[in-house]
Structures are given as structure tokens and as C-alpha cells.
Specification:
Chain B: Keywords: Cell membrane, Membrane, Transmembrane, Transmembrane helix, Transport. The complex is a heterodimer of chains A (650) and B (514). Chain A has 650 residues and is an alpha+beta fold. In chain A, 34% of the residues lie in helices and 17% in strands. Chain A contains 21 helices and 18 strands. In chain A, the strands form 5 sheets. Chain A has a 6-stranded mixed beta sheet with strand order 11-16-12-15-13-14, sandwiched between helices. Chain B has a domain of 131 residues. Helix content of chain B is 76%, strand content 0%. Chain B has 21 helices and no strands. In chain B, 45% of the residues are buried. Classes of the chains: A alpha+beta (650), B mainly alpha (514).
């Protein structure tokens, strides 16, 4: 113990004795003997006095108070009291994870732990039921009717039961169906949706999947069953309004917006407002919903922290960390072992690794590079899992830019253009790219063979079987490529490949592609561009683009924008009527088996038409202390947080 | 004077407008708020992009948006400040600033002061030992430090200063080769700094090496690092040592009144007050304000003792004793914090690894004032060292250069010729003039510390001004970036004006006129 009574401590001050003596000689090099003599003289005098003082001091120090003595042993890290600290890159800023501005992983990870939801993803990306919170079941196919049954254990942390009002608020707000004015026309100079007055309802959200539900639902008398009906069949009904959280607490929103003080009255007011389309009340509700739950440090208003899940936010230091603490009055099914989860914020991957090594955090998910992987693997007592990330790398071809892949170049001969495209894709060194660049980061990395589904998702294998990509482009085929080029009588077509210039990994990929393309008889031109993402829609700049798409869910309708003729992400202007039709069908197909079949058919077209090619899933690195078990990363949000209730600290 | 000020301000405002305009337009070209949406596969991507374009007025040319922004800044003069807000978090920039400025101040203030002190001292010694090996080594080392990239220094500091050091604390096994190398290095340093005849130098070398070795051996083998503390004896000895040293530098040991005043202060503060404070802190948990008050009180005690010794030079004695009292007070404070070190180390959040690599404080730490003080220091130490290593070089070079210039001037020769002691020549005649050029550098440095340290803050996870700037760039959020630029711009202009005035006050040869 750091007792001031300790005799030994006199030793520690040796340098100071010495310093004094030496300081006297300090200027000796600059001739000044007089000072020295006087110094010596004085010293003699003082030594006697000094000895006396010190002797007294030693005697006195024997009876000083012991200030720093630890009265209790703080190291009580029993299993039930354990704390887990996770490093994340971006700070939390809103409890409303569903508005246009609040929708970010930084929010959804924490919102997920603080709230229960009807469903969640498991490691196989299958939707799992959270029955303690409620059930979602289809009650009729035509018209499609889906019943949400809320469980008895579903309660807000202030004791109010989760009820129909909360679900209706989530639907009404997220769909944007009640908006009387476009969200984007109602924003102010700072880019926030302005507080609206009068009867201008503006919920800052427009989720097209939720928006498919047009009518106010049927609600049981006990407010525990809500039945939504869809005007058209909808494939992804199971995931609708079911993931991450159950929305904001309606009774709190009502309290803030409408001034109701009783939870029951608040819920009723919200239901009534949506049912009667009472625009005056809805305007106020929307104002609260849009920004009322945004904060970047722990709010003094505890109402904003009312949640349905096992954790509640107990500390939030701006830009530094958030601490979630296990709630005692949580009744649901997902009771966690860990008492406190703290999320600390830092973007720097090396800083994350060193913080893990120094025990300041227990789990990290740094940006995956070879250096970082080497560093985390070198740490004792730390486990590292490598795996897939939500983003996948792919090459898209521009088909309407007057370039080598555009039929116009060949006088409108679509067959010729297709052969050139096929030749380019056949030359693609997919295996080599994965082996050289991704394998070092993720042992189990494989070439991704589906345009639509993430490897490991339930329908991936079936789709790959049907799309024929392995027969067509499974092996790099330089001879085949040369032959196809000859058939198309295209000599040395110039292909400009655009990629992120400042991204080292993409530079390497490009080098491999260039090497292979040049061998196959193309002239591959370096189109590296720092502003590549801005230039994606402008195909006059490139013929092939190399970049990543980030999947946010496994819903079947998500990929529509990439491949349909008018799709937002279809930059290359690919157009196939059959694909468009199949997507229409897919959007209304309710049977998951049939969905996979349709997806396979769509992909078959994409492969046959030489739309482009998929390369690999981005690698991810998850490192955590050995004492922490249960960490298991998944590729979609909420990534490693998905099974927080299974974490255990030994 | 007023004319000068008016002119300066007018031209500064113009410069500021041009600078902010250029940076606004350039930043806008460089960032792309839509980037994350462009590669999204979200079904409502188009609506998102349209909404964001509309929200941020990305369809309006940036010079026009600059004017809007400028309007908001202009509002500050009529009490309606509007520096915009972060579109990502909805937080207004005005709301972000206090926290960021506070964090930056906390991080950079101490580091800057220490860097100035070390830089000046090393620069002075280096000048006095011009063209010796010592001088060359110092020059080499300072330039080396100066050119080190901070992110690299930070990684090394974390690896050795934190991770390895904490490993040692958990499994104390002294690293003998390292201790020996450090001891010899310290010996060589003191030998160089002391100069003198060959025999004298060898004695210095041997003495300094042996003493450093003994001290390090004690620190690393006795468990002192796990349970540090100075104790009453240590406190007294340090105070007495400080008394002699300060007197020597300030008035010379010949001034007996001054010396006795300093020694009395040392005994009173380092002994009696130290002992009293042990009991005081045992019963009272202090606050920052109490500590500040006690510091002032300590200086007052020293000054009082100095004055009590009377004599014709009583204010000199008072000054000397005041400084000694301050040093002794700091020692009491440090000792008290040290006493809580072991308790802090054992807390469950720290679990035996007290030197931290990230953040400004440990999440969820509960404890009294001292625990939080220790927590502050364990987080501050690494970034501070990084900042000091890199910035003290400038001060060293400035001081050395101007000291050399001054030492070669006629009046120094005159001073020596009339028989003044070397201490008086250096401390009173040379040093004061040599420090003049620093008056131009230090205010600028002190004021711009509010701007924080972009790299250091980012690597060590301190969310100050620099991090706000870096995050703004990362997230394509122009308003925080502009706030940073505006504040740093205003401060550097202000600092330059202040430097002009300080110069004018300190150096009678310079007059501040239009």
C-alpha cells in the first residue's frame, strides 16, 4: 500500500540530493568558483538542521493516515456482474433508428440491445422468432393479412405494456403514408426536417416495404393483436416491422407531442390520430418522432430512455462511450448474462487493436487489413474470427455508353456485344483475386457466386445451382475469351475500368484484372478515380466498374434496384424484360422456396446476358478476449451484437 | 495604438473571409455527403439521395451556400449565432463546441506548458555548451523528434509505455539491460550538461550513472511502482532541494535572507503542511476549486514567509519562497494522487493495467476526487508525451539560437568584466533578453492549442476540436469543419495581435504603432 509511513521512500529522492549538489557546479564550465565555496559553506550549516528535521519527519510519518488504502476488494467480477466493452467506430446519436437520418448502424446496434423485436437474424441469416415479445403470422393469403400478436412479457421499461399503439406508430411513421408534404421539401438550411406547424404531417421516413401497408389495421379490443392487410401480395412480409426494435414508445411520444400524462390516454390518442387521420395531432407526433429522440449525450429527460429490451442506457459521455446496464424489471426472453455493455468510440483500427491488447476493450471489429490481422493474431489471450462482411465486391459492365460492351459499337449487333462482355468476364481472374487478396484475411473466403444473396443465406446454394455462373465463369478461361473476341471480330477492345483510386485493395484487384484482360486480348485502361462513387452514374467515364454493394438485409426485394431496367443502381443500363417481370413476380411471391427459384431464374438471365460478375464478400475481423464467449459475428446489422444475450464473461 | 488595432482587425477580417471562402469551396469539392448512399442497396435509395440533396442544398453552388453560412456567422455579432449543425447527428455546431474545446484544452494545455519549460531549459543548456558533443546530440535528438510522425510515435508509446509497462506491473520482472542503458544514457546526459575538466566529467558520468541505476533499481525491484508515494520524508527532501535550487537560480545562495526564507518555506510546506494535509484529505474529498484555492494559499504562505524575513530585498525573498511553496504544494498534490494509485489499479475496470491507451476517462469509474485525478493522468500521460516530444524541439531551437546571439553581445562581456557572477550574467542579463523571441511564439502556441491536435486526438481517442475536424471530414459534414477553421483562424489572428503587444511591452525597443 502507498503508505506515507514507509521508510524506504527516502531512497526515491536520491536524485534530488544529487541535483542540488550538481546544480552548484552548474556553471563551473563558465568560471565561477565563488558560488561553489559559498554553497559548500551553507551546506555544512544546513546539514545539521536538515538531519534534525528529517529525523522528526520519519518519526511523524509513522502515524499518518493511510489515504489510498482500499477498504474493499473491487475485483468482484462474478459472472453475473461482468461488464463487456466493445469498440465501435461511430457514436450513437438517435433512439429513433427508423427515421431517414437516424438510420445508421451506430444507432441500430444499441437500439437492438435496448429493445426487443418480433424477429432477429441468426448466424445463418434466417429470421428467428422472439416469442416472448410477440408473434407474426399470416392469417390469409389473398388478400395478404398478417397478424402481429404482442406477448404479455412485452413491456416498456416504465411498466407500460407494449401495445397496438406502438406498432401503429411504427407503421404510420415509417411508411410515410400519412405525410401531407414531402420530407425533403420540409427541411431547413441545416438539413433537418423543420418542425411543422398546423396540419403539415411530415414523418422523415419513407420505407417502401412498410409503405405497402396502406390501410389502418384491425386491432383487438385488448390492444394486443394487430392485423395489417396488404393490398398486393408481398414477399417480405415476415421481416416487415419486425427487425431491430418495435419502434418508439407511443405513450412517450404522445406525452411529448400531445401533452397527455397518462400512458393509456397517450396510447389511445396516438391510435386515434392515425385512425382518424387527425393531421393536427399527427403533425405534432411527427415533429416529436423525427427529432425528439436524438441526443449525443445522456439526456436529462429519462422519458427518452424508455425501451422494451433487457438493457437501458445509463451513461453516455459525448463521443466517448455509452454504457447499457441490465434492467431488473425486464420480463422478456432474452435475459443477458452480462450486466453492463459499454461501447467505446474510436475509428482508428490500430488504436482499437492496442486498446484490446491493453484490456481497455473486450471486443473489436477493426477494418480488415493484413496488418491488422497480423497484429490481433499476435496478442496473447485474444481470439480472432475472420469471416464475411456485409459488402460484396463485383464488376459491372456499361452497356449503353458507346464503349466495347455496347451493341451500338457493333452497329447494333447485340450478340457481338454480348460476346465481348462474355470474353471480358471469362478472362476475370476471380479465383486468383480471392486467393491472393482475400484469403490472407479470411481463410474460408470463397468466390461469391450469387448476385442477390449473401453466401450462407438460406437460399444461396439453390440460387448458385440454378444461375449457371460456375459453368460459365467458374474457371478463368483466357483461351475461351480470345475465341469469343475473335468471333465478335473485335480486336483489342479498350476497356476503361473505374475503381476507388485511394483503395489499396482495389488497386491490387485492378492489377490482376488488367494482367488477365490484356492477355485475353483486351486493352485494359486504368480508370482509377478518387471520386468514383460520384461518377458511377456517368458511364461515359468508364466501361467496367469495380466496387462493392452493401447488403442491409436478406429480403428478396432489396436487389431489385440493381438489375431491373429502370433500377436506381443499374448504372450500366442493363435491360431485360424477363428480369423485370421476374422481379414483379418475386415481389409478390409468398413462398420462400419459390422465391429462391425466381431468384435463380433472375440470376440465370444475368449470367447469360453477361451483366457483370461477382467477386467476393468483404472480409471482416472480429477479435475478443478469450474470457468472453458467445461472440459470433453475422454479416448484416446488428453484426456482432446480434446475440448479446448469449455473451458470457469467465 | 487604436489605429494600429483597427487596421490589424480590419485586415484580419478580410483575410479570414478569403480563407474561409476558399476552404468552404475546397472542402465542398472534396467531400461527398451522398457517398454512403451511392453504394447502398436500400430500396428507397433514390428518395434518400433526393432528400439529402434537398436538405443540404447540394444543388446550390457552394459559393452561394458559403454566403448563407457567412450570414449565420455574422449573426454572432447580433447575438444570433448560427454556425450550422451536423446533418448526421442533428447536433448544432454551437452545441458541439464547448465539449470539444474543453477536451482539447485539457489535453493540450499541460503538454504545451511542459514542452515550453523543457524546451527552454534544454535550449539554454545547449547554447551554453555550444559545439560540444552534448550540443550536437541535443540538436540531433530534437530534430529527430520534430520530424517524427505523431501516429507512429503514438503507436510506439502505446506499445511500450502502456502495454509493456502494464505487463511489467502485472508480472514485475525488471528489464536489466534497459535499466543499464537508461542509466548510462542519463550519465552521459549529465556529463554533457555539466561540462568541466576531463576528471570532473568522468566523475559526473560515474556519479549520474550510479545514482540513476540505484534509483531505477529501487523503483523497479521494491514494488514502488505498484505502491508509489513520497512520504513525509520524500516531500521534505524535495522541498528542501527545491529551496536550494530555486534560491541558487533566483537570487544566488549568497543572499542569505532569501535562502533562509526558502528553506523555512520548504520545512513549513514540505513538512508541517504536508503532514496536516494528510489528515485534511483523509476527512475531506476536495474539488478542483478547493485545490485551486489551496494552491493560491500555498503561494501566499511562501510570499508571507519571504516578506517576514524582511531586509532590503524582501520581495526577492518573497518571490523565491513563493516558488518553493508552489513546488512543495504540487509535491503534496502528486503524493496524494500517488497514494490512490494502487487502489485505482485494482479497480475492476482497470484490472491492473493503469496506463490507458484511449479516451479521456475510464467508462463507469466510481471513486473520489483522487481516483478521478489518477484516472485523468493515466489517460493524459501518453498523448501528452507524444505532444511534448514533437513540439519541444521548436522551443529548444528558438531558445538556443537567441541565447547564443545574446551571449555574444557586448553588454554580456561588460557584465562579466565588471565582475558579476556567472549566475547573474546568465540568469539576469542574458536569459531575459534571450527569451524575448519566445514572446512571439508562445502566445500563438498557447492560443492555437484550443484548436487541438488533430492526429493526436484521433489516435488517442480524445474527442476534442481536432477530432471534430477529422470526423467532419470523414463524414462529409461541412459545418463542423468550417467551425474548426473559423475558430482556429480567429485564434491565430488574435494570438498574433497579442504577440505584437507582448513584444511591445517586453522590449522597449519596439513600439506598437500603425
Amino acid at each position: 500500500m502507498g503508505s506515507p509511513c514507509n521508510m524506504h521512500e527516502a531512497f526515491t529522492v536520491f536524485p534530488f540530493w544529487e541535483a542540488r549538489g550538481r546544480r552548484n557546479d552548474f556553471h563551473r564550465g563558465l568560471r565561477s568558483p565563488r558560488v561553489l565555496t559559498n554553497g559548500e559553506h551553507v551546506k555544512k550549516h544546513l546539514l545539521t538542521a536538515g538531519a534534525g528535521v528529517l529525523a522528526t519527519a520519519m518519526l511523524l510519518s509513522a502515524c499518518s493516515p493511510n489515504n489510498g488504502a482500499d477498504s474493499s476488494d473491487e475485483g468482484g467480477s462474478g459472472n453475473q456482474d461482468a461488464e463487456v466493452k466493445v469498440m465501435w467506430n461511430q457514436p450513437f446519436f438517435s433512439m429513433n433508428n427508423e427515421s431517414n437520418t437516424g438510420n445508421a448502424t451506430a444507432n441500430s446496434n444499441l437500439v437492438y440491445m435496448m429493445n426487443d423485436s418480433f424477429k432477429y437474424y441468426d448466424p445463418d441469416l434466417k429470421l428467428q422468432e422472439n416469442e416472448g415479445f410477440g408473434k407474426i403470422e399470416k392469417v390469409s393469403d389473398d388478400p395478404l393479412k398478417v397478424k402481429y400478436t404482442i406477448g404479455d412479457k412485452a413491456k416498456w421499461s416504465d411498466g407500460t405494456p407494449y401495445s397496438a399503439a406502438d406498432l401503429v406508430l411504427a407503421w404510420g411513421a415509417r411508411s410515410g403514408n400519412f405525410n401531407t408534404k414531402d420530407a425533403d421539401k420540409a427541411s431547413d438550411d441545416e438539413g433537418n426536417v423543420k418542425k411543422q406547424k398546423g396540419e403539415n404531417v411530415v414523418f422523415n421516413a419513407a420505407d417502401p416495404q412498410v409503405a405497402r401497408i396502406k390501410d389502418f389495421p384491425e386491432i383487438s379490443s385488448d390492444n394486443k393483436e394487430v392485423t395489417f392487410s396488404y393490398p398486393k401480395p408481398f414477399a417480405d412480409w415476415e421481416a416487415n416491422l419486425a427487425l431491430t426494435d418495435g419502434g418508439l414508445p407511443a405513450h412517450i411520444v404522445a406525452k411529448k407531442a400531445l401533452g397527455t400524462d397518462d400512458a393509456q390516454k397517450g396510447n389511445d390518442a396516438v391510435l386515434k390520430a392515425f385512425k382518424d387521420k387527425d393531421n393536427k395531432s399527427l403533425t405534432k407526433i411527427a415533429n416529436t418522432w423525427n427529432t425528439g429522440f436524438d441526443f449525443t449525450k445522456l439526456p436529462s429527460d429519462k422519458d427518452l430512455l424508455v425501451t422494451t429490451g433487457p438493457y437501458e442506457m445509463t451513461e453516455y459521455k459525448e463521443n466517448q462511450y455509452v454504457t447499457l446496464t441490465r434492467r431488473d424489471n425486464y420480463e422478456g426472453d432474452r435475459k443477458p448474462n452480462i450486466k453492463k455493455v459499454t461501447v467505446r468510440y474510436n475509428e482508428d483500427p490500430t488504436a482499437a487493436v492496442q486498446a484490446l491488447q491493453n484490456g481497455e476493450v473486450d471486443a473489436i471489429q477493426p477494418q480488415a487489413t493484413a496488418d491488422i490481422l497480423k497484429q490481433v493474431q499476435g496478442i496473447d489471450g485474444v481470439k480472432t474470427d475472420t469471416g464475411d462482411d456485409a459488402t460484396y465486391e463485383h464488376v459491372d459492365l456499361a452497356m449503353a455508353n458507346g464503349g466495347p460492351f455496347d451493341p451500338k459499337t457493333y452497329g447494333g449487333d447485340a450478340a457481338k456485344a454480348k460476346k465481348v462482355r462474355q470474353a471480358f468476364l471469362k478472362a476475370m481472374p476471380r479465383e486468383k483475386i480471392v486467393n491472393d487478396i482475400i484469403k490472407p484475411l479470411n481463410d474460408s473466403a470463397k468466390v461469391r457466386n450469387s448476385f442477390i444473396q449473401v453466401p450462407g443465406s438460406p437460399s444461396y446454394d439453390q440460387i448458385v445451382k440454378e444461375n449457371g455462373i460456375e459453368q460459365m465463369y467458374g474457371q478463368q478461361d483466357l483461351e475461351g475469351a480470345k475465341k469469343l473476341l475473335q468471333e465478335a471480330s473485335a480486336s483489342k477492345p479498350k476497356v476503361r475500368v473505374m475503381y476507388a483510386k485511394d483503395n489499396a485493395r482495389r488497386q491490387q484487384e485492378f492489377q490482376l484484372i488488367k494482367e488477365a484482360g490484356d492477355q485475353a486480348g483486351f486493352e485494359v485502361v486504368d480508370g482509377g478515380d478518387a471520386q468514383w462513387s460520384e461518377h458511377l452514374p456517368d458511364t461515359s467515364r468508364y466501361d467496367a466498374s469495380l466496387f462493392g454493394w452493401q447488403s442491409t438485409s436478406t429480403t428478396v426485394t432489396e436487389s431489385e434496384a440493381n438489375f431491373t431496367s429502370t433500377g436506381q443502381n443499374n448504372f450500366g443500363k442493363y435491360s431485360n424484360k424477363d428480369v423485370d417481370k421476374l422481379y414483379d413476380q418475386l415481389g409478390q411471391e409468398l413462398d420462400t422456396g419459390k422465391q429462391a427459384e425466381l431468384e435463380g431464374q433472375i440470376e440465370k438471365h444475368l449470367v447469360d446476358d453477361a451483366f457483370g460478375i461477382t467477386l467476393f464478400q468483404f472480409p471482416s475481423i472480429t477479435s475478443y478476449r478469450e474470457q468472453l464467449s458467445g461472440i459470433d459475428n453475422i454479416t448484416v446489422a446488428p453484426t456482432l451484437f446480434w446475440n448479446y444475450y448469449e455473451w458470457k464473461m469467465q | 495604438m487604436i489605429k494600429f488595432l483597427a487596421k490589424r482587425i480590419a485586415s484580419s477580417v478580410l483575410v479570414l473571409i478569403v480563407v474561409t471562402f476558399l476552404l468552404y469551396v475546397l472542402t465542398d469539392l472534396a467531400i461527398d455527403p451522398l457517398q454512403e448512399l451511392r453504394t447502398s442497396t436500400s430500396p428507397n435509395k433514390e428518395a434518400d439521395m433526393a432528400a439529402r440533396t434537398q436538405q443540404l442544398h447540394l444543388d446550390v453552388p457552394s459559393p452561394l451556400r458559403y454566403l448563407w453560412w457567412l450570414g449565420g456567422v455574422g449573426g454572432c455579432f447580433i447575438g444570433r449565432c448560427n454556425l450550422g449543425s451536423s446533418w448526421k447527428t442533428h447536433q448544432t455546431v454551437l452545441d458541439m463546441l464547448p465539449g470539444a474545446v474543453g477536451t482539447s484544452l485539457k489535453l493540450v494545455f499541460a503538454a504545451t506548458i511542459v514542452a515550453i519549460l523543457i524546451g527552454v531549459v534544454v535550449g539554454l543548456i545547449s547554447a551554453l555548451r555550444q559545439y560540444t558533443t552534448f550540443d550536437y546530440v541535443i540538436t540531433f535528438v530534437t530534430f529527430l523528434m520534430y520530424s517524427l510522425p505523431v501516429f507512429w510515435v503514438a503507436v510506439l508509446l502505446k506499445q511500450y509505455g502502456s502495454i509493456s509497462f502494464n505487463n511489467y506491473l502485472q508480472h514485475p520482472r525488471p528489464n536489466w539491460p534497459l535499466i543499464i542503458v537508461i542509466s548510462i544514457a542519463a550519465g552521459l546526459f549529465w556529463m554533457g550538461a555539466m561540462a568541466g575538466s576531463l576528471r570532473r566529467r568522468l566523475i559526473n558520468l560515474a556519479a549520474a550513472t550510479v545514482i540513476t541505476f540505484a534509483a531505477l533499481t529501487y523503483v523497479f525491484t521494491s514494488g514502488w511502482l505498484q505502491h508509489p508515494g513520497l512520504g513525509l520524508v520524500g516531500s521534505l527532501v524535495i522541498a528542501l532541494g527545491a529551496a536550494v535550487l530555486v534560491t541558487h537560480l533566483s537570487t544566488g545562495l549568497n543572499n542569505r535572507r532569501s535562502l533562509y526564507a526558502a528553506l523555512t518555506t520548504a520545512v513549513v510546506m514540505g513538512g508541517a503542511v504536508y503532514y496536516g494535509m494528510q489528515w485534511f484529505y483523509h476527512f475531506y474529498n476536495p474539488t478542483v476549486w478547493l485545490i485551486a484555492l489551496l494552491t493560491i494559499l500555498a503561494i501566499a504562505v511562501g510570499v508571507g514567509i519571504g516578506l517576514a524575513f524582511g531586509g532590503p530585498d524582501k520581495w526577492q525573498s518573497a518571490r523565491t519562497a513563493g516558488i518553493v511553496a508552489l513546488i512543495a504544494g504540487v509535491v503534496i498534490f502528486i503524493d496524494q494522487a500517488m497514494q490512490y494509485w494502487a487502489k485505482y489499479s485494482k479497480m475492476s475496470q482497470i484490472s491492473g493495467r493503469p496506463i490507458r491507451t484511449i479516451g479521456a476517462g475510464e467508462p463507469g469509474l466510481e471513486g473520489n476526487f483522487w481516483i478521478h485525478t489518477v484516472d485523468n493522468y493515466t489517460h493524459l500521460i501518453l498523448p501528452s508525451i507524444a505532444l511534448i516530444l514533437i513540439s519541444f524541439a521548436t522551443y529548444t531551437r528558438y531558445t538556443r539560437g537567441s541565447m547564443l546571439e545574446v551571449m555574444n553581445q557586448d553588454y554580456i562581456r561588460t557584465a562579466r568584466a565588471k565582475g558579476l557572477s556567472e549566475r547573474t550574467v546568465i540568469m539576469r542579463h542574458a536569459m531575459r533578453n534571450a527569451l524575448l523571441p519566445l514572446a512571439a511564439v508562445v502566445p500563438v502556441d498557447l492560443m492555437t492549442i484550443i484548436g487541438g491536435a488533430v492526429m493526436t486526438e484521433t489516435v488517442f481517442g480524445w474527442s476534442g476540436m481536432g477530432k471534430m475536424f477529422a470526423d467532419g471530414l470523414h463524414q462529409a459534414d461541412i459545418d463542423p469543419i468550417m467551425a474548426y477553421i473559423l475558430i482556429v483562424g480567429i485564434l491565430s489572428i488574435l494570438a498574433n495581435v497579442v504577440a505584437d503587444f507582448v513584444y511591445g511591452i517586453l522590449d522597449p525597443r519596439i513600439r506598437v504603432t500603425a
